[in-house]
């Protein structure tokens, strides 16, 4: 366990703040100040692990508030950061908690959800570790199904028959081993993929129980599942499947036997407490200024509920107690109707880093279309390449798409880079539909094509509101 922890610390150590920013640059255009802030916050986690133990628990995470309009990269920065650090990551809207009482969920639910994600990650890592052994065991079980052992009654041989019987047994064993190895080679080469085998799989039916409760719903839910899971044990059911599906089913079963779930849970709780990242979106929607009545009371109530979680408390999950003291919270919001100072002073103090993200310009849109690893132009070219269509975007076309997206954002609601998706979908609608039947497999998109395709929508403001 300690070795695994040291390895993860080393993994984080190799990423300096400059390297973290460089990695984020591959997917996100601009927003250098925000990238610097999250890079420092991530590096500080590794730094905290290096200080003496008595001081380590005293160092609180430097939570961040990102201020900026929608579609400028707030969520993507946090998501890519978590992926880079291999941290459990949860995105949740703060407005969800204003609904508690009739359809919402209590604030502690986000820690339970984060722990569930960490358990899945830890289980996947453990499954990768036992993968080779599980593959071997599942292969042996599959060969047993394809070549059942002979079930013959063993008779006591007479004195004179002993030597003859030994020869027969040896011969049969050699023949079975030889056949088994032939089957193994056929199985590995994929020549048995069309064959069917009969498997016994576990099937557990748990009756549905609805619980109506304002608080603690999650705790009741997992307790009920555990109780009914013990009351209604799994039943075996025979299933006829092809060899590839049987291989996967047997692999999963063997993996489950080899995985130490106690160790997985222990590692998951450590990951949640030390590496967890929660992205709290729409924080501005629960910040309210002016007199406290009506909906504002609910918003302030949500802030008060969030406060102990962000400050550091212990939350009960079905895997045990999880401390939130060192989970990194990255909050975000447009803050066009309110400002961070409208939050409760105690909550403001728990988000010491404020960073403002810039609105995206026409030049930024051009770069978003072309430069990132997951650039939109690259995505659409790859999608249509599956149909044998070679889609070519001229520079003038890219410039025109970016210009149209920025103009529409100015005229209507500014949704940032998300506008590029709607423009691209409208532009390539006909090509995407007709791609399988097209004779001309090379399609060139130029400025004239873009202008012609989107002319009516851009000119008609009523249409553009509904289509773009």
For this entry, give a set of tags:
Helicase, Ruva Protein, domain 3, single chain, 20 helices, alpha/beta, 11 strands, 468 residues, two-stranded antiparallel sheet
Tell me about this structure.
The chain is of the alpha/beta class and 468 residues long. The protein folds into three domains: 2-125 and 264-356, Rossmann fold, CATH 3.40.50.300; 131-149 and 160-258, no CATH class; 362-467, Helicase, Ruva Protein, domain 3. The chain contains 20 helices and eleven strands. The protein has helices at residues 2-13, 17-25, 32-50, 53-56, 74-85, 109-129, 131-146, 162-189, 217-231, 243-258, 261-275, 295-311, 345-349, 362-370, 376-385, 395-411, 418-427, 429-434, 447-459, 461-467, and strands at residues 64-67, 89-93, 196-203, 235-242, 277-281, 314-317, 320-323, 328-333, 353-356, 390-393, 442-445. A five-stranded parallel β-sheet has the order 2-5-8-1-9, with helices on both faces. Strands 3-4 form a two-stranded antiparallel ribbon. A hairpin with a 2-residue loop joins strand 6 (314-317) and strand 7 (320-323). Helix 16 (395-411) crosses helix 17. The chain is flat.
Short description:
This protein is α/β, with parallel strands linked by helices.
* Named CATH architecture of the largest domain: 3-Layer(aba) Sandwich
Largest beta sheet, briefly?
5 strands, parallel
Instruction: Return the average pLDDT rounded to an integer.
Output: 81
> How many structural domains does the protein architecture include?
3
The CATH class of the largest domain, by name, is: Alpha Beta
List low-confidence stretches: 1-13, 151-156, 208-218
The radius of gyration computed from the alpha-carbon positions, rounded to a whole number of angstroms, is: 30 Å
Query: Helix tally?
Result: 20
CATH topology heading of the largest domain: Rossmann fold
CATH homology superfamily name of the largest domain: P-loop containing nucleotide triphosphate hydrolases
Broad shape: flat
Portion in strands = 5-15%
Strand order of the largest sheet: 2-5-8-1-9
The strand count comes to 11
């Amino acid at each position: 366990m300690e070795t695994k922890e040291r390895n993860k610390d080393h993994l984080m150590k190799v990423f300096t703040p400059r390297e973290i920013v460089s990695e984020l640059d591959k997917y996100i255009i601009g927003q250098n100040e925000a990238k610097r802030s999250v890079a420092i916050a991530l590096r500080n986690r590794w730094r905290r692990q290096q200080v003496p133990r008595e001081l380590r628990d005293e160092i609180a995470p430097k939570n961040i508030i990102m201020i900026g309009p929608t579609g400028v990269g707030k969520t993507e920065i946090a998501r890519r950061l978590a992926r880079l650090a291999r941290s459990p990551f949860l995105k949740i809207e703060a407005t969800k908690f204003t609904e508690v009482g009739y359809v919402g969920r209590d604030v502690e639910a986000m820690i339970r959800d984060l722990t569930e994600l960490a358990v899945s990650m830890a289980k996947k890592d453990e499954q990768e570790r036992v993968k080779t052994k599980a593959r071997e065991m599942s292969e042996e079980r599959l060969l047993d199904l394809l070549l059942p052992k002979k079930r013959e009654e063993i008779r006591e041989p007479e004195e004179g028959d002993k030597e003859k019987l030994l020869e027969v047994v040896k011969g049969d064993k050699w023949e079975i081993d030889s056949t088994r190895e032939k089957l193994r080679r056929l199985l590995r080469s994929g020549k048995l993929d069309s064959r069917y085998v009969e498997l016994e799989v576990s099937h557990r039916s748990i009756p549905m129980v609805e619980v109506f409760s304002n608080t603690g719903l999650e705790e009741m839910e997992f307790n009920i599942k555990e109780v009914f899971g013990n009351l209604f044990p799994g039943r075996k059911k025979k299933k006829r499947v092809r060899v590839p599906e049987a291989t996967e089913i047997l692999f999963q079963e063997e993996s489950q036997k080899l995985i130490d779930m106690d160790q997985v849970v222990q590692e998951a709780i450590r990951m949640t407490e030390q590496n967890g990242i929660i992205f709290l979106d729409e924080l501005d929607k629960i910040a309210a200024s002016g007199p406290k009545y009506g909906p504002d009371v609910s918003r302030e109530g949500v802030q008060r509920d969030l406060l102990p979680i962000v400050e550091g408390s212990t939350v009960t999950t079905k895997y045990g107690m999880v401390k939130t003291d060192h989970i990194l919270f990255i909050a975000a919001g447009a803050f066009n109707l309110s400002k961070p100072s409208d939050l409760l002073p105690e909550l403001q103090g728990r988000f010491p880093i404020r960073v403002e993200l810039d609105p995206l310009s026409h030049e930024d849109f051009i770069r978003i279309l072309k430069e990132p690893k997951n650039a939109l132009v690259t995505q659409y070219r790859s999608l249509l390449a599956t149909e044998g269509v070679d889609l070519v975007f001229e520079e003038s076309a890219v410039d025109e798409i970016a210009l149209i997206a920025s103009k529409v954002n100015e005229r209507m609601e500014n949704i940032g880079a998300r506008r590029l998706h709607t423009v691209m979908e409208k532009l390539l609608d006909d090509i995407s539909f007709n791609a399988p039947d097209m004779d001309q497999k090379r399609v060139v998109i130029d400025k004239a094509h873009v202008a012609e395709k989107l002319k009516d929508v851009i000119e008609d403001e009523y249409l553009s509101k509904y289509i773009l």
